[in-house]
């Protein structure tokens, strides 16, 4: 089992602590939090070992799990990597692209693996349809959330939209050509609602909307490709795949047939895959353990986390 330590014991950090404790791939050594009062409270309440010194925790583990605020990701990640430890780091990978590229270079230099916590890659609905997404040409994503003060230290693009940016980059096999966007600050110092249009070299267009001041929560994406429409509800963990094929000579009574102006007939049918419910955070952590164990590339590598951040920054920089 890999010895793991968690840096940061806030809301998400406590979830990571619980799951690492439950995991059969990790041995939870303990955690560090800059707030000693919070650290002692969590130690007393849950029994996790609290380390008063960050360096002591890093020295005692094989894997460092960084669940601290984004502004501290680079320094804590760098400290872990240069100590020769594998690094799991929450999204966004760092605060700047330069910092992210620095971590990528350091991981190669020190021969350690890194994975970024883009948890939607492990959403069971997305995992079920991802193999069926083949050369999409138009993508639409909406990620809306009710207001929560936690996370407003960064623009909504880094807080919410980056989930969809990463998911889209994982299925569009083309370089980004251009980015246009608009964002509005309503209650925070940084934009609370944003819309972005990403154009790819192969002609694919992705239209993304993210808001953290909505009256209801929504996390949906739709992928349009030749002869198929694919929808993913990340929140409800449901998906739908609608496909088209040449209509049979003698359609059945219940067959759905469309005919265009040229007289070409197509049959619409559903190809919905089975969604196997899971704990996405546990799965992402254990997939990282498997990548270390088998010396394979992590599902969401540091390079991929960097690319998602790069596009997110392009969006932020293009705000009017």
Question: What does the model show?
Answer:
It is a single chain. The chain folds into two domains: 2-117 and 281-299, NAD(P)-binding Rossmann-like Domain (Rossmann fold, 3-Layer(aba) Sandwich); 121-238 and 270-276 and 310-317, Dihydrodipicolinate Reductase, domain 2, CATH 3.30.360.10. The protein has nine helices and 14 strands. The chain has helices at 11-22, 36-46, 54-59, 73-82, 97-110, 124-129, 156-171, 280-294, 302-317, and strands spanning 2-7, 26-32, 63-66, 86-90, 114-117, 138-144, 176-184, 193-200, 205-211, 218-225, 228-233, 238-246, 256-259, 265-270. Strands 7-8-9-6-10-11-12-14-13 form a nine-stranded mixed β-sheet. The chain has a five-stranded parallel β-sheet with strand order 2-1-3-4-5, with helices on both faces. Strand 11 and strand 12 form a beta hairpin. The relative contact order is 0.16.
Describe the structure using short key phrases:
single chain, 320 residues, alpha/beta, Rossmann fold, Dihydrodipicolinate Reductase, domain 2, 9-stranded mixed β-sheet, 5-stranded parallel β-sheet, 9 helices, 33% helix, Gfo/Idh/MocA_Oxidoreductases, Gfo/Idh/MocA-like_OxRdtase_N
List the helices and strands and how they pair.
Blueprint: E1 2-7, H1 11-22, E2 26-32, H2 36-46, H3 54-59, E3 63-66, H4 73-82, E4 86-90, H5 97-110, E5 114-117, H6 124-129, E6 138-144, H7 156-171, E7 176-184, E8 193-200, E9 205-211, E10 218-225, E11 228-233, E12 238-246, E13 256-259, E14 265-270, H8 280-294, H9 302-317
Parallel strand pairs: 1-2, 1-3, 3-4, 4-5, 6-9
Antiparallel strand pairs: 6-10, 7-8, 8-9, 10-11, 11-12, 12-14, 13-14
């Amino acid at each position: 089992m890999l010895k793991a330590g968690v840096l940061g014991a806030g809301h998400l950090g406590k979830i990571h602590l619980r799951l690492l404790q439950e995991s059969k791939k990790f041995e939870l050594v303990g955690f560090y939090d800059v707030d000693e009062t919070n650290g002692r409270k969590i130690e007393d309440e849950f029994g996790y070992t609290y380390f008063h010194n960050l360096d002591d925790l890093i020295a005692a583990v094989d894997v460092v799990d960084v669940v601290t605020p984004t502004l501290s990701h680079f320094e804590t990640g760098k400290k872990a990597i240069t100590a020769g430890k594998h690094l799991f780091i929450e999204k966004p990978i760092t605060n700047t692209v330069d910092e992210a590229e620095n971590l990528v270079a350091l991981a190669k230099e020190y021969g350690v693996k890194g994975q970024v916590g883009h948890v939607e890659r492990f959403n069971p609905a997305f995992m079920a349809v991802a193999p069926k997404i083949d050369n999409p040409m138009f993508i639409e994503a909406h990620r809306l959330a009710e207001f929560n003060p936690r996370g407003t230290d960064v623009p909504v693009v880094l807080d919410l939209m980056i989930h969809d940016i990463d998911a889209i980059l994982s299925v569009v096999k083309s370089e980004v050509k251009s980015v246009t966007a608009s964002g509005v600050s309503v209650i925070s110092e940084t934009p609370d609602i944003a819309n972005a249009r990403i154009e790819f070299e192969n002609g694919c267009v992705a239209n993304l909307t993210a808001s953290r001041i909505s009256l209801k929560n929504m996390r949906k994406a739709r992928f349009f490709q030749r002869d198929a429409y694919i929808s993913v509800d990340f929140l409800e963990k449901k998906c739908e795949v609608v496909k088209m094929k040449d209509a049979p000579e003698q359609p059945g009574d219940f067959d759905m047939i469309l005919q265009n102006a040229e007289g070409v007939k197509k049959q619409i049918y559903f190809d919905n895959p089975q969604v196997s419910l899971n704990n996405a955070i546990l799965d992402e952590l254990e997939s990282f353990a498997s990548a270390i164990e088998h010396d394979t590339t992590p599902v969401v590598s540091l390079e991929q986390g960097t690319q998602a951040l790069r596009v997110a920054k392009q969006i932020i920089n293009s705000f009017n």
